[in-house]
């Protein structure tokens, strides 16, 4: 044992002592080796520890101490004291370096937080974090954080609610996947530009939502940079702007719809400032001015547009008057020269525009092209003039016909004709002349009385009507005095000279000038006996352009005169024959009667022919303009309904209009217009339809066309007729409206001519209203006369009330009967006997033609194989009964057989 003891023999090492040193040093070495390993592992795991070099030095120092204890075990057997001393020296150096490093760090280490302080700090940090987390969750905008690639690192609850996603679904997902597919490409480009330029990001886009419609948001983000300035991510906000976008889209759609409406309606709309400079308009105004869009007109004045100078001055004058008076002007009729060079008529409305303070800042105007209406009015006026001319012509022709019927005196007929034509034509001179042929005569004064001599032909003016200022020209005129102009009469040619100075033949010119004529219209007549006469109208002072209607009038007159002359000559011949041969008196009387019958027949034939021509002419002249009016009423109604619907839509979505619109709405009484305008258009349509029915009835009366039989509801015809006569029912009784009692039965559809049956209803109801009105006038006169006598009571007169009763029912013989009963004046038996005769009337002149009941009788009896009866008592009223079959085909079959 002593031979291997490393410390010599002066000490005695026992085995127990060596074991103690061996175990102790070995355990110490193992402990020293495990400590630095743990410290180094701790430092590597906690890279955020303050002063990590201290742990490294301690680890080296402890590891060196562990090597010394391990070396002590070796020195128990091997005396390696130099090596053991070197290790101790290294340990000493490490310990000195560690102490030198730790000593300066001691003040800093003393400043480190204690565990309690760290716990308090952690608790405050946790509280602050919870507060900020609550604030972020309660924030009314979406908050998010992404990395530089766009993956979502954080999103608050509001951001999830915008997209309808759960937080777990939103996190760790690329933001590109949440973008609406239509906005994805645009947003990626904007995001890339923001990253490349390292600038904030802002954009409006849509996010995917559960309902697949997309949610509009405003995304804003700012970049997060590391200390080197590199963008490591983005933090931003999401603002829900879906409601705002919907409002904007609705507003844009409303603006587009308003623009479409303004550019579609036929009316032109524009607005100007105080200086009459255009600030806007619809497309129609721009097109009228020669521009392609309304924007081209903004900033221009009327002087810059293709209007005439007079039109421009008038437009600006009205603008200034409206703005100065602060009052609108409506229905200004004026002309407008379009850019295409067409001159048209327009109806303009101008309203002042106000700012919020009520100051006039401009003018709003609308105008509508009424050229077609003006043309229609002119045509209607021409038709009215033509109708009056036809009426005057018919009056003249009827008067001549009455002269023919009442007198066979040739002189009277010619005088009446010349006077009537002079008054009607408003000429300065009118006369009638005969052509007297050459005659052979015998004169006893001559030496040879049996030798004949000839009287030359001449013209004789037998009657005239003239202005008193001009000389008489009645007398005989030789052919030389008349000149070549007489040959034209002999050839039965019409002479139509508007101005004598324009005649190429100097002889004809001088012939007319010797009579002092400057304008002449002459129509020749040839009788059945070959005689030639001429009816002449002439002016002495002013030239006159003879119209075709005037020529037609004189042709009709000359035709009547020819009939009258023929009748007079026949009558004269008959009287001469009676004087020469009394033996043939009976035969001549018989001939005279036949002649008178022929005369009456001719008169009636000519009258009905002339009336038929007149009716046809009137129907044709009225039919064209009324068809134009009737055909456009439906369009006008539709346009007004569309405009009223548009106004209601605006009132629904803009319940609080601007003051200017509110003021105009109150001024025009918009609610009243809504109620009254459809009624007005309906009344116009009913009136136009009524005129069409009248025209149709006139044409049926003159046999100009035939209508078809169809099944109709007679009650509808009665109701429509009462509707048309509603104003008559109100006015006929003054304050007392005529009471209409309807006792309608259960009638089937009846085969008839609907328009003609309605005409019958119209005629009968009109007569009933007239009878009630006449009875009311009589009652009022009686009340007035009795009111002056206080003793006489007038309660019996007050008890009478105007009333019309209409009853319909089915008869057993498959007939329907319509009774129209009034409590008017009634009729005598004599009047009832002539009630259905043509041209018979009890009304004053100008109140009736006498054709209404005659036409009604013809329609019911001849056209429908029915019966029209009347029963009446004076001052008790009248009852008209219309009885027609339900089916007409049986009767038609019998007629055809």
Could you characterize the architecture of this molecule?
This protein has 897 residues and is α+β, with helices and mostly antiparallel strands. It contains 26 helices and 25 strands. Strand 6 and strand 7 (278-281) form a beta hairpin. The N and C termini lie far apart (173 Å). Mean pLDDT is 78; it is low at 1-5, 7-12, 600-609, 700-706 and 891-897.
The outline comes out as elongated
Task: Indicate the radius of gyration in whole angstroms.
Answer: 60 Å
Strand order of the largest sheet: 15-14-11-18-17-16
Largest sheet: 6 strands, antiparallel
Write the layout of secondary structure elements.
Layout (H helix, E strand, L loop, with lengths): L14 H31 L6 H23 L6 H31 L3 H24 L3 E6 L4 E4 L1 H7 L3 H4 L10 H17 L3 E7 L7 E11 L5 E10 L1 H23 L3 E6 L4 E4 L1 H6 L20 H17 L3 E9 L5 E12 L5 E10 L1 H36 L3 H16 L3 E8 L2 E4 L9 E4 L2 E9 L8 E4 H4 L2 H6 L4 E3 L8 H9 L4 E8 L5 E8 L8 H33 L4 H69 L5 H10 L1 H32 L8 E3 L1 H11 L1 H7 L6 E5 L6 E3 L1 H34 L7 H4 L4 E8 L4 E8 L6 H5 L18 H12 L3 E7 L3 E9 L3 H8 L1
Parallel strand pairs: 20-22
Antiparallel strand pairs: 1-2, 1-5, 3-4, 4-5, 6-7, 6-10, 8-9, 9-10, 11-14, 11-18, 12-13, 14-15, 16-17, 17-18, 19-21, 22-23, 23-25, 24-25
Helix pairs in contact: 1-2, 2-3, 11-12, 11-16, 11-17, 12-16, 16-17, 17-19, 19-22, 20-22, 22-25
Gist of the model:
53% of the residues lie in helices and 19% in strands.
Primary descriptors:
5-stranded antiparallel beta sheet, single chain, 897 residues, alpha+beta, 25 strands, 6-stranded antiparallel beta sheet, disordered C terminus, 26 helices, disordered N terminus
């Amino acid at each position: 044992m002593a031979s291997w003891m490393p410390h010599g023999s002066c000490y005695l090492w026992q085995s127990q002592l060596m074991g103690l040193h061996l175990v102790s040093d070995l355990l110490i070495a193992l402990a020293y080796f495990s400590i630095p390993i743990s410290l180094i592992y701790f430092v590597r795991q906690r890279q955020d520890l303050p002063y990590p070099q201290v742990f490294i030095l301690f680890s080296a120092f402890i590891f060196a101490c562990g090597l010394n204890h391990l070396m002590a075990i070796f020195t128990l057997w091997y005396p390696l004291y130099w090596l053991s001393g070197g290790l101790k020296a290294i340990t000493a150096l490490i310990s000195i370096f560690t102490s030198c490093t730790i000593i300066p760090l001691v003040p800093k280490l003393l400043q480190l937080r204690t565990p309690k302080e760290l716990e308090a700090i952690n608790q405050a940090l946790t509280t602050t974090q919870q507060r900020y987390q609550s604030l972020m969750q309660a924030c009314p905008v979406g908050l998010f954080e992404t990395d530089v690639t766009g993956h979502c690192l954080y999103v608050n609850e509001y951001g999830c609610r915008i997209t309808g996603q759960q937080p777990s679904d939103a996190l760790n997902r690329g933001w590109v996947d949440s973008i609406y597919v239509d906005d994805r490409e645009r947003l990626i480009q904007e995001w890339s530009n923001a990253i490349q330029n390292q600038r904030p990001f802002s954009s409006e886009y849509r996010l995917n939502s559960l309902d697949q419609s997309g949610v509009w948001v405003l995304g804003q983000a700012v970049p997060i940079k590391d200390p080197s300035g590199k963008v490591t991510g983005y933090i931003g906000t999401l603002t829900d702007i879906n409601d705002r976008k919907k409002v904007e889209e609705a507003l844009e759609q409303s603006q587009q719809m308003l623009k479409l409406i303004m550019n579609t309606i036929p009316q032109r709309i524009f607005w100007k400032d105080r200086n009459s400079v255009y600030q806007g308009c619809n497309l129609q105004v721009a097109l009228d001015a020669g521009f392609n869009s309304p924007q081209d007109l903004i900033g221009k004045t009327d002087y810059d547009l293709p209007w005439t100078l007079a039109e421009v001055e008038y437009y600006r004058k009205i603008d200034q008057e409206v703005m100065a008076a602060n009052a609108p002007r409506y229905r200004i009729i004026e002309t407008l020269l379009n850019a295409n060079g067409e001159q048209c008529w327009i109806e303009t409305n101008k309203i002042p525009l106000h700012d919020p303070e009520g100051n006039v800042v401009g003018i709003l105007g609308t105008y509508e092209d009424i050229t077609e209406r003006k043309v229609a009015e002119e045509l209607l006026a021409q038709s009215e003039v033509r109708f009056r001319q036809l009426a005057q012509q018919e009056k003249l022709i009827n008067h001549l016909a009455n002269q023919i019927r009442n007198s066979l005196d040739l002189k009277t007929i010619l005088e009446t004709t010349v006077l009537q034509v002079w008054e009607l034509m408003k000429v300065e001179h009118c006369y009638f002349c005969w052509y007297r042929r050459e005659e052979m005569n015998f004169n006893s004064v001559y030496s040879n009385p049996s030798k004949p001599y000839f009287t030359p032909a001449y013209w004789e003016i037998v009657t005239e009507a003239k202005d008193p200022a001009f000389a008489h020209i009645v007398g005989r005129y030789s052919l030389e005095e008349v000149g070549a102009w007489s040959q034209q009469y002999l050839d039965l040619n019409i002479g139509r000279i508007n101005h004598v100075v324009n005649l190429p033949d100097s002889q004809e010119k001088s012939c007319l000038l010797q009579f002092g004529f400057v304008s002449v219209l002459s129509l020749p007549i040839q009788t059945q006996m070959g005689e030639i006469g001429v009816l002449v109208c002439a002016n002495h002072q002013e030239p006159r352009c003879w119209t075709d209607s005037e020529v037609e009038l004189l042709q009709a007159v000359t035709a009547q005169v020819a009939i009258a002359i023929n009748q007079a000559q026949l009558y004269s011949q008959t009287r001469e024959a009676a004087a020469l041969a009394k033996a043939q008196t009976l035969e001549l009387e018989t001939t005279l009667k036949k002649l008178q019958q022929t005369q009456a027949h001719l008169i009636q034939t000519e009258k009905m022919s002339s009336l038929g021509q007149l009716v046809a002419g009137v129907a044709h002249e009225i039919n064209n303009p009324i068809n134009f009016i009737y055909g456009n009423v439906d369009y006008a109604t539709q346009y007004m309904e569309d405009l009223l619907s548009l106004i209601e839509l605006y009132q629904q979505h803009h319940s609080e209009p601007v003051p200017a619109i509110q003021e105009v709405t109150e001024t025009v009484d918009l609610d009243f217009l809504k109620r009254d305008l459809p009624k007005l258009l309906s009344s116009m349509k009913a009136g136009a339809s009524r005129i069409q029915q009248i025209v149709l009835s006139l044409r049926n009366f003159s046999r100009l066309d035939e209508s078809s039989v169809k099944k109709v509801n007679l009650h509808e015809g009665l109701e429509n007729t009462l509707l048309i006569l509603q104003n008559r029912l109100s006015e006929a009784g003054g304050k007392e409206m005529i009471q209409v009692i309807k006792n309608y039965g259960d009638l089937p559809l009846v085969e008839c001519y609907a328009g003609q049956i309605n005409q019958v209803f119209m005629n009968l109801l009109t007569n009933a209203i007239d009878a009630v009105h006449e009875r009311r006038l009589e009652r009022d006169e009686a009340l007035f006369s009795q009111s002056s006598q206080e003793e006489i009571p007038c309660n019996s007169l007050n008890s009478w009330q105007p009333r019309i009763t209409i009853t319909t029912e089915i008869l057993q013989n498959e007939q329907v009967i319509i009774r129209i009963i009034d409590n008017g004046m009634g009729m005598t038996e004599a009047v009832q006997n002539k009630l259905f005769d043509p041209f018979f009337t009890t009304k004053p002149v100008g109140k009736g033609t006498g054709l209404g009941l005659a036409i009604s009788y013809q329609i019911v009896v001849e056209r429908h194989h029915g019966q029209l009866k009347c029963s009446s008592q004076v001052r008790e009223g009248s009852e008209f009964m219309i009885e027609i079959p339900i089916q007409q085909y049986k009767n038609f079959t019998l007629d055809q057989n």
